[in-house]
Amino acid sequence: MTGSLLKKNARKLIFNNALYIFLFSLLYVALTSVISRSAIRLSGIIGFDEINSRLAAGELPGLSILFSNFNYFWFFIGVMMFLIQPLFDFGFINYCLKTVRKEKTSIKNLFAGLIFFTKVISIFLITSLYIILWSTLLLIPGIVASYRYRQAYYILIDDPRKGALQCISESCLMMNGKKLDLLTIDISFLGWIALDLLIFLVTPLPFAVPVVSLWLSPYLGLTRAAFYENSVSDVAV
Asked: Distance from the CA of 17 to the CA of which of 7, 69, 94, 203 falls in 20 to 30 A?
């Protein structure tokens, strides 16, 4: 199934379940936005809104300005908050996969990561470490590695009995010959992602962030879930 067809099916799912999907997406985007902004604030690193105000005033913030309020304790708390986000990412992936499969969904899907806390965090930390290590060689190996591990959360959703390393290993096998296909799909979303990031950078208030994300999150999430579902079918064949 081509990327354009996967995206078309994702749009159809959104239009057919618009109210519920957008409400679910609003909750997801609001939670992750607040978490990410709070993590930055608590770490003592000045936020994007302050950076923007300084740039507008003609001041170029240096490292001493960026870390002017740095505190080790609050940095640790910020890191802990940052680690909460993968749990909600996992929950949103769970919701998108169930939606693609036309299974029953509920708000509980967003909090599925709390049930599998250890495995979700383990997958996140292990894959992040692998990607960083590959990236120390060159940028391209790091990108390839990131796509190699992309299906690990989906595999855990399908079989929660599997461990983190098994999910990562099976993701590598599943993505053999498919990494370029998924990269092509992601590239097709670059315009939306750039617009979403721009709004995030220039908007100081968390509630204003979901403007583009309300559309992008389910659109991208459902397309990627459909890609996984299609990959599972190929493996089964």
From this structure: 203
End-to-end CA distance of the chain: 14
Could you state, in order of their start, the residue ranges of all structural domains in the chain? Answer: 3-32+86-236
Residue 145 tokens, joined: 């590695």
User: Per mean pLDDT, which of 23-27, 51-55, 123-127 is the most reliable?
Assistant: 123-127
pLDDT, tens digit (0-9, with 9 covering 90-100), for 127-158? 999 999 998 888 888 999 999 999 999 999 99
